[in-house]
Design brief:
The complex is a heterodimer of chains A (about 375) and B (about 300). Chain A has about 375 residues and is α/β, with parallel strands linked by helices. Chain A has 2 domains: about 5-180, Rossmann fold (3-Layer(aba) Sandwich); about 260-370, Rossmann fold (3-Layer(aba) Sandwich), CATH 3.40.50.920. In chain A, about 40% of the residues lie in helices and about 20% in strands. Chain A has helices at about 5-15, 30-35, 50-65, 75-80, 80-90, 115-120, 140-155, 165-170, 235-250, 255, 275-290, 310-315, 330-340, 360-370; strands spanning about 15-20, 45, 65-70, 95-100, 110, 130-135, 160-165, 220, 260-265, 270-275, 295-300, 305, 320-325, 345-350. In chain A, strands 1, 2, 3, 4, 5, 6, 7 and 12 form an 8-stranded mixed beta sheet that branches. Chain A is globular, with a radius of gyration of 21 Å. Chain B is an alpha/beta fold and about 300 residues long. Chain B folds into 2 domains: about 15-265, Thiamin diphosphate (ThDP)-binding fold, Pyr/PP domains (Rossmann fold); about 270-305, no CATH class. Chain B is globular and about 65 Å long. Residues about 290-305 of chain B have low confidence and may be disordered. The chains are: A alpha/beta (about 375), B alpha/beta (about 300). Chains A and B meet through helix 1, strand 1, helix 3, helix 5 and strand 8 of A and strand 2, helix 2, helix 4 and helix 9 of B.
């Protein structure tokens, strides 16, 4: 099964029964499969007129009671930015799948890149936090899509699922476990009475309980700065209270949210930090360097956002340099450099996209860094 | 925001409003409040189940309606009320979904969604308050601003041809199309009730004054003068071909019910197609009472294996 199809199966396994999409290469196979599969499991796919529509239609679906997602690639992802902000502000749990291709603009429709990593984090205006996951295989496209939905429900945020063209189109064995072995996080639905329910009341827990339209709660949802009742309250104190909570509900849980794969970092002179498809090329370079006797560690980011500052800080104290290959001209490497706070060097191995790195190019930088 | 301590006792529409959000933001002489009153009257008369009624607005002066009605109400992004409402309706087909927004929101930035929802015949009731201008942002030219009118972005007069909204939505496929002004309160209320009884994309345009930004800048008097204009220059022509109902500045306003026809709505078409193609394999999520992640939590459906 390829990564795009595995992502679709993961969404179905996570309970997604609603998707709104707009065709765009190299992501379309996800919704093509969903359109084929969902009518026989009970649900609905709608192909909208554009990505602006798709990215808000799915949110209507969520407030109507569904678990929902959309799928796109760079140019469509750009059009969806306002609605990532809307989902963050209204705390609408949902998943945006971005199968990255070369950009900017139309760029390389059928070829890979990892150029949307900063856009996923900062693309909408204002201050907010999202979670972004980076699979590096079709198996992870399945497993982590479920995780993406679970995190979306737990924190009531939009989760970015950052695939790339190679992972999306790569075919490998995918093991789908029996349904009863798959952990699915349910919606954080309120049990409160209509009288007691405050749509954005937090009661100490930073994630409010949710109600759906049609249940009698008669709640109000707005993208304006709002109080616990969901009513607009456009004052500096309310802005501070709300936006701070939207940030802190994620930032206070960074260590719990962060997933990474770590190998031989204890005595490493150089640690290669990578994610997505690039991590597989990096593995080859690491193996080659170790064969030459170099002490090379590996940190593969599975959670890109929130960025695991704590992990980089810890590793920076005991290594000489981080080598960061990525299919862009320097995005996550900036985060590594920021979190390292000068305690270890950060060396980018850039690639403008269109193919993956040559392992030799990464190896050369590792050798240089280890010197 | 101050709270109205004692709402007018016995006001029949008060139960439909969030009185704890009063006073509202609309200007003296604005027609939006009048349309909300007509909407509330329609709710009373139609005895519609309020629990299953959801209202979706976009951005703008009319976009604020969602914040004042005591319903499940969504104030969405600029132009996107219709696609949000589409998702809401498809996810929970038992909901009655009303889209309540302005001319700029629905026909400019949201124009693509307007025509496609009409084409699909999604079962939405769209109330479009047309004040001929972008009011929230200070009176700029809209796709509905009639020729010659002066606006803040057309200081020498508007010259772009304006949209004839009833004609547009009829051509795109709407099953119910009517137009009234805020002078026609009973007719408007009746039209909203009729739309509730239609299955499919229904569109009601309400011509409404913006005394602060349209009438004043064009030296057309105040809200009352506009009511007099609506009274004198409106002509009721039910069934009038929509191609003939375009608006001109201070010209005749043709009002009435222009379109009332039946076409299968989106959900009916979807189900029919799935039954035809998949037979017994089709799982009608509507009959299954929607999604399993509802009130009890937990998506229990796991039939994808």
């Amino acid at each position: 099964m390829d990564g795009d199809h595995a992502c679709c199966e993961g969404a179905l396994a996570a309970g997604a029964r609603f998707a709104a999409g707009y065709p765009i290469t190299p992501s379309t196979e996800v919704v093509e499969r969903f359109a084929q599969r969902v009518p026989v499991v009970g649900g609905c796919f709608i192909q909208m007129e554009d990505e602006l529509a798709a990215s808000i239609t799915l949110q209507g679906g969520v407030w109507g009671g569904a678990k929902a997602f959309t799928v796109t690639s760079g140019p469509g992802f750009s059009l969806m930015m306002e609605h990532i902000g809307y989902a963050a502000m209204t705390e609408t749990p949902c998943v945006f799948v971005d199968v990255q291709r070369g950009g900017p603009s139309t760029g390389l429709p059928t070829l890979p890149a990892q150029g949307d990593m900063m856009q996923a984090r900062w693309g909408s205006h204002g201050d907010y936090e999202i979670i972004a996951l980076c699979p590096n295989s079709p198996q992870e496209c399945f497993d982590l899509t479920i995780k993406a939905f679970n995190l979306a429900e737990e924190f009531r945020i939009p989760v970015m699922f950052m695939m790339d063209e190679v992972v999306g189109h790569m075919t490998e064995k995918v093991v789908i476990p029996p349904a009863d072995q798959i952990e699915v996080v349910p919606r954080k639905h309120t049990k409160k009475s209509v009288e007691d329910y405050l749509p954005y009341g937090t009661n100490g827990d930073m994630v409010p309980e949710m109600a759906h339209a049609g249940e009698g709660y008669k709640f109000h949802v707005t993208g304006l700065t709002h109080d616990e009742r969901g009513y607009p309250n456009m004052t500096p104190p309310m802005q501070k209270t709300l936006v701070t909570r939207l940030q802190n509900k994620i930032l206070s849980a960074v260590e719990r949210i962060s997933m990474f794969e770590e190998d031989s970092t204890e005595n490493a002179d150089v640690i290669v930090v990578s994610y997505g498809i690039t991590s597989r090329v990096a593995q080859r370079a690491i193996d080659m360097a170790r064969a030459q006797g170099l002490k090379v560690g590996k940190l593969r980011l599975i959670t890109a956002w929130p960025f695991p500052d704590f992990k980089i800080r810890e590793l920076a104290a005991r290594t000489k340099a981080f080598v960061v290959p990525e299919l862009n001209l320097g995005q996550m490497s900036r985060e590594v450099q920021r979190a390292a706070e000068g305690k270890a060097k950060t060396i980018l191995v850039p690639h403008a996209g269109g193919s993956v790195h040559n392992p030799e190019d990464i190896l050369a930088v590792i050798q240089e860094a280890a010197r | 925001m101050t709270t109205l301590v004692n709402p007018i006792p016995g006001n029949p529409v008060e139960p439909f409003l969030r009185s704890d959000r009063m006073p509202h933001i609309w200007c003296p002489g604005c027609g939006i409040g009048t349309t909300v009153n007509c909407f509330a009257e329609a709710l009373i008369e139609s005895k519609i189940d309020l629990k299953s009624l959801a209202l979706v607005s976009g951005i703008g002066c009319t976009g604020r309606v969602a914040g004042y009605v005591k319903l499940d109400s969504f104030h969405t992004t600029h132009g996107r009320a219709i696609p949000f409402a589409t998702g809401l309706k498809l996810a929970n087909p038992h909901l009655n979904v009303v889209v309540y927004s302005g001319d700029g929101d629905l026909s400019a930035i949201g124009g693509n969604h307007l025509i496609h929802a009409a084409r699909r015949n999604v079962d939405l009731k769209v109330i479009c308050v047309n004040n001929l201008i972008y009011a929230m942002t200070g009176g700029q030219t809209a796709p509905t601003t009639p020729g010659q009118a002066t606006t803040s972005t057309s200081p020498y007069g508007t010259f772009e041809p304006a949209f004839n909204l009833p004609h547009l939505v009829e051509a795109a496929g709407a099953v119910y199309v009517a137009r009234w002004t805020t002078f026609h309160v009973r007719q408007l209320s009746r039209s909203i009730q009729e739309a509730f009884n239609k299955k499919g994309f229904s569109f009601i345009e309400v011509i409404s004054p913006c005394p602060t930004l349209y009438q004043r800048r064009n030296k057309l008097g105040d809200g009352l003068d506009t009511m007099k204009y609506y009274k004198e220059k409106s002509k009721t022509k039910h069934g009038c071909p929509t191609g003939e109902v375009g608006l001109t500045m201070q010209g005749e306003i043709i009002v009435g019910k222009f379109v009332d026809r039946d076409r299968p709505d989106y959900s009916s078409l979807l189900k029919a197609q799935m039954h035809q193609s998949l037979g017994d394999k089709y799982v009608d999520y509507d009959e299954e009472q929607g999604y399993a992640c509802g009130a009890d939590g937990g998506c229990e459906e796991e039939s994808c294996h």
